[in-house]
Amino acid sequence: MTPLAEILRPQSLDDYIGQQHLVGPGAVLRTLIDSGNIPSMILWGPPGIGKTTLAMVISNTLHRPFHTLSAISSGVKEVREVIEKAKNEEGSILFIDEIHRFSKSQQDSLLGAVERGIVTLIGATTENPSFEVISALLSRCQVYVLKEFGESEMRQLLTSAVNHYASQGRTVEIKEVEALFRISGGDARKLLNAIELVVNNSPEPTVVIDNQRTTNVVQQNLAFYDKQGEMHYDIISAFIKSMRGSDPNAAVYWLARMIEGGEDPVFIARRMLIFASEDIGNSNPNALLLANACFDAVTKIGYPECRITLSQCAVYLASSVKSNSTYMALANAQQTVRQTGDLPVPLHIRNAPTKLMKQLGYSEGYKYAHDYAGNFVDQEFLPDALRGTKFYEPGQNPREEETRRQLRAHWKEKYNY
């Protein structure tokens, strides 16, 4: 029996839901599709937001031969077979799902065909392609970021599902949506799977879907999601939140769940490396060093031995003092940049490698800190429009309190430390 998510998969751009920043009227990818000349590309975004569907819609719209491979079950042999077939076709599209799981050698096998235009590659990934796709291949592709579905898109999916069942002579009334939205978490596939579960488990001719019914049915069928890998993102979320909450016991439990479930240990190590800066930062700089050493060890020794290193790092990170001050400092600065644009660099801190630049006042008045007592001298480093703007607020922990005292000695009046 064909799943509801597959039945409702859009076949054209007009039916495609979401990602209007890419495929809406006048958007960058829509313009390329309309021109008939698309580049090789990487579609990056969370699961269930239309990456595979978009690749298929592009193929349908341009009437191109479409080949699909999964990085989980395909290797260099399958890639070469598709490339040989594509040599006898015009404008073939090769779609690779979960391209982040391809090894370096597998990705290398794509380079020649992509470069010569034998295939147009469309890769889909939930992971940052800067980390997961080799630079030679990444440089030959455009990266398009797809966004998680919001309430508007999810309601469109609900309407499509209800209309489909009506066309099959089945009345479905969605009375409450909160449980459906909570379960799906912005994932269209999860949403449609949940609706299908509820409908299939309801013998009455008119199915009324409310929060209670949704919760009861889905809880009884959790394995349905597990075998499809849908719990992957929930468990890594629980792992991160346990470390953030300073609970090493829970962190080790969720780590064990991932290890027993066959999760890629490099993926786990990378998430801990991100966590070390985002959630610990300068409250304990050793956390980043240990997480980086863990990542290095995992890539060198592999599974199963690396599981011990993963546990050591997870316990250390969970037990460490926490601070997101540097993460928030950057977020505040980025927000200011978006609001104020490209403000000019003050002349006195500009580079002046040429005579003309010196004549224009570049670097004039700059004070070299090491020429002054304590290696510090009060001068302005921000654009004039942002004088006195404080982005970094030290966290309330012993190490950053010491940082605060140092900053206060220099910038008490200017930044109110």
Describe the structure.
This protein has 21 helices and seven strands. Helices cover 53% and strands 8% of the residues. The protein is globular and about 85 Å long. α5 packs parallel to α6, α14 packs antiparallel against α15 (248-260) and α16 runs antiparallel to α17. The termini are far apart. With 417 residues, the chain is α/β, with parallel strands linked by helices. α5 links the parallel β2 and β3 (92-97). Strands 2-3-4-1-5 form a five-stranded parallel β-sheet, with helices on both faces. Strands 6-7 form a two-stranded parallel sheet.
Lay out the secondary structure.
Layout: H1 4-7, H2 20-23, H3 28-35, E1 41-44, H4 51-62, E2 66-70, H5 76-86, E3 92-97, H6 104-116, E4 119-125, H7 129-132, H8 135-138, E5 142-145, H9 151-167, E6 171-174, H10 178-184, H11 188-200, E7 206-209, H12 211-220, H13 222-226, H14 232-244, H15 248-260, H16 265-280, H17 286-301, H18 306-319, H19 325-340, H20 355-359, H21 398-415
Parallel strand pairs: 1-4, 1-5, 2-3, 3-4, 6-7
Features:
single chain, 5-stranded parallel sheet, alpha/beta, 21 helices, 417 residues
Summarize the structure.
By secondary structure, the protein is an alpha/beta fold.
State the end-to-end CA separation: 65 Å
Taken as a percent bin, the fraction of beta residues is 5-15%
The helix/strand series, from N terminus to C terminus, equals HHHEHEHEHEHHEHEHHEHHHHHHHHHH
Helical content band: 40-55%
